[in-house]
UniProtKB/TrEMBL annotation:
Gene Ontology molecular-function annotations: beta-glucosidase activity
Any one cellular-component term (Gene Ontology): cytosol
Similarity annotation: Belongs to the glycosyl hydrolase 1 family.
UniProt-recorded name of the protein: Family 1 glycosylhydrolase
Length: 450
């Protein structure tokens, strides 16, 4: 396979601010309402972050020497009522695309990451099957406008978190606690993904590359006990395989045929073919590995998370173990015979003494973990850092500065962090000038056995 391409990313809700930097206004999303109730770490909502303009983002991206910039289209800006498309919003995103292409940077366009329009939530959100169809219509409208120039499309980011954090455990928007009942939201989100895959290809009118960006992890048992091993295996299937199994193999793991509280009849027989539409890539967003113990008195949530001992933590409390990314990639590849090329995205927040060195080490070690997986036959095609700038980070609000570029939350002043220079050096050490492709990794790679 060809060598790695390098990129950076941003999220629409993280950098749009109150007015989208003077672009077309947007309607409220589920996160605006969730944050207004004081349910984020600092009480801030997505309108709290200083908006970032594409003109200010381009120079550092060019300086990095990366080939790609993944950015998000805000669903609530393009379709404020969830149904009708605002052409002025598409004008704004068209300008982003043209400026990126003019600078020699490939836009990777994301259609959904937490920005479900509030109007659709009032009708049931992802608990309603109609939302899947409306997402497909939205995807078709965006691809019909931008598909002649945008070649890479991400349907949605972290459908597992959207469903189970938002509708299952209530820790994210919309803040509903249905536990296993969130399976309905997951199924409809994945149905929306599959519907969008077809809609994008049809509306673009040319060959484009489409896939999701799913959150993956590893789940290690807290102790060698049978109970903890069973709980860790359950969580592994829950977090990783509910999405990967459905999207890559066309079915959910058998372990969830009796998920407590799940309305399995939400899945119609014909849905599997839509959800498992052939992909051009499969995105892996990796944050951190989990340590899992049994929760023997809770059949609805049969696991508990344990904070590991003697492990460095990020500002968000995530354990830093780059080898967990390597293990996650190898595991994904070995489990799924038809896994398409994989796109890896990482990122983390650090504060306090030594934060610059810790950011640089985290980035370098996770790139090296990815390269190690490639050497074992995992078909990784790209590596991206998921936070070009600081911004609003969902439940963490403005408390988790993760960007290569620091942004003052009051003034919006942007200041490159030392890690930006470090990333630039990592990219340059692995690429020919101006290609963004690692020639050293070229050539066919044998798949691992087992």
């Amino acid at each position: 396979m060809a060598g790695l391409m390098f990129g950076v990313a941003s999220t629409a809700l993280s950098v749009d601010g109150a007015d989208g930097a003077g672009e077309a206004p947007r309607a409220d999303t589920v996160w605006d309402t969730f944050a207004a109730a004081g349910r984020t770490a600092d009480g801030t909502g997505p309108r709290s972050a200083p908006a970032q303009r594409i003109e200010t983002l381009l120079p550092p991206v060019q300086e990095l020497g990366v080939r790609e910039f993944r950015f998000g289209v805000n669903w609530a800006r393009v379709r404020p009522d969830g149904v009708h498309t605002e052409q002025a919003a598409l004008d704004s995103y068209e300008r982003w695309v043209d400026l990126l292409l003019g600078a020699g940077i490939e836009p990777v366009l994301t259609l959904h990451h937490g920005d479900l329009p509030l109007e659709l939530m009032l009708g049931g959100g992802w608990l309603e099957r109609d939302t899947s169809a409306l997402f497909g219509e939205y995807a078709a409208d965006v691809a019909g406008r931008l598909g002649d120039r945008v070649s890479r499309w991400v349907t949605m980011v972290d459908p597992f978190g959207t469903a189970f954090h938002g509708y299952g455990f209530g820790v994210d928007a919309p803040g509903i606690v249905l536990l296993g009942g969130a399976f309905t939201a997951l199924h409809h989100a994945l149905l929306g993904h599959g519907t969008a895959v077809d809609a994008i290809r049809t509306a673009a009118g040319r060959e484009v590359r489409v896939g999701p960006l799913a959150d993956h992890t590893v789940a290690d048992p807290a102790t060698p006990s049978d109970a903890d091993r069973t709980a860790a295996a359950w969580y592994d299937s829950f977090h990783n395989e509910l999405v990967a199994g459905a999207v890559l193999d066309g079915h959910y793991p058998a372990a969830f045929d009796h998920l407590p509280g799940a309305a399995l009849d939400a899945a119609a027989p014909e849905d599997a073919a839509v959800i498992s539409a052939p992909l051009d890539f499969y995105g892996v967003r990796f944050e951190f590995g989990r340590t899992i113990a049994a929760a023997q008195d809770n059949s609805s949530v049969p696991f508990s998370m344990v904070e590991p001992d003697d492990v460095e933590l990020t500002a968000a409390g995530w354990p830093v173990r780059a080898d967990d990314l390597h293990r996650s990639l190898v595991m994904l590849h070995r489990r799924h015979a038809l896994v398409p090329p994989i796109r890896v995205e990482v990122g983390a927040s650090f504060t306090g003494p030594g934060e610059d060195e810790r950011r640089a080490r985290h980035l370098r070690e996770h790139l090296e973990a990815t390269e190690s997986a490639v050497r074992q036959g995992v078909p990784v095609e790209s590596f991206a850092y998921g936070h070009l700038t600081d911004g609003w980070e969902f439940g963490d609000g403005m408390t988790r500065p993760s960007g290569l570029i620091a942004v003052d939350p009051q003034t919006g002043t942007a200041t490159p962090r030392p890690v930006l220079q470090h990333y630039r050096e990592l990219v340059r050490s692995r690429t020919d000038p101006g290609t963004g492709v690692d020639e050293r990794a070229s050539g066919d790679i044998d798949a691992p056995g087992g």
